[in-house]
Fold this protein.
Amino acid sequence: SFSIQKGESFVLIGPSGCGKTTTIKLLNRLLKPTDGVILYKQKNTKDYDEHNLRREFGYVLQQIALFPHLNVEENISIVPELKKWNKVRIKERVTELLELVKLNPEEYSTRAVSELSGGQQQRVGVARALAGDPEILLMDEPFSALDPITREQLQKDLKSLKDKINKTILFVTHDLEEAFYLGDRIGIMHDGELVQVGTKDEILN
């Protein structure tokens, strides 16, 4: 078992098939636990309405999964619209988030997602995950499909972004350097078990 502190960047690392993505999906109830207990704000996640629970989490996937028929602004607006924010507030939020992920709102708001590079799409994915002001950001290998230069830049941007947004982040990767760079603490998984948890220095030593 493990716990993640508020405001912490916690990274799960391990080989393919060890249970990293399953862990993330258990947290936001895309999978239901067959055993054990998951507590969010001292309350069992199965006692929450699952739709309300999911809105507490921003979710960024490796496959990005933007809606191709919607433009950039419409993609980012989805959760605020579900939360019934007014149009002015949504527009302000979209502008704020595009600036935060270093995409000029005037240039990118009305762009079709098919016109964006992989790195730009992933930035929109991060903005969309943050749009409803979630408590926790779940990031499932979000940079692993990108070229090394884009990936390194997004890692740096996420690190500086974390200081600005003050969110709790659970980040999944199979890249040790990425884990050490982004994680306040790292959990190492193997065959469905968490075998070690610690800071970079604790794990290296």
